[in-house]
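Side project, low priority. Logging it here so it doesn't get lost.
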Amino acid sequence: IMDSQGNVIIHPQLENESIYDAQDSQGHYFIRDICHEKNGQKVYSRKDPEKERSREKIVYYKYFEEMDWIIVSGVYIDELYEPVKTVIYTLVTLSACILLIVIALSVFLGKSLANPIKQLAGYAESIGEGSLNVQIPVNSRDEIGNLGRTFNTMSDKLKSVIGQVQRSGIQVTSSATELSATAKQQEATMRIQVES
């Protein structure tokens, strides 16, 4: 609190001193402006005695006419934004950690899905090349495990159908051999009858 002449009435360090001629870092008499304007806000840069460097400070001031006081309240802008910076830093760090976890999970899930599918493709290729004795190891109850069981069932059915075709082929060959033998016998019998 100061009067309209720049004399400090209440302050933690400057009580009963005149600060009317105080200047900011650019040499501007900011207290004179406050005393003249009496109400408002101002941003100025001033050397902080504790930090030994210039810092921007924002002040709000209001004139109390009955006592000829100007009540001034201010804060250094960097102190005002320090909690915001801390929150932003925390959020960025947290976001980076979450992103790393998501990437790691994506890679893990991708491999856990891709590897069994590659394995199934290899077994399917073997079955396609005629290796019907191939049995796909099924270790899960998910869709990939279901696909593996389906491949095994298909392989077993193909093996069964090919076995039936082979047996049928053997029967046809056997029947053809018998027919050929019967035809030769009948031909021989007919020749004998024709000659006689």
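Brief comment: DSSP finds three helices and four strands in the chain.
Revisit when time allows.
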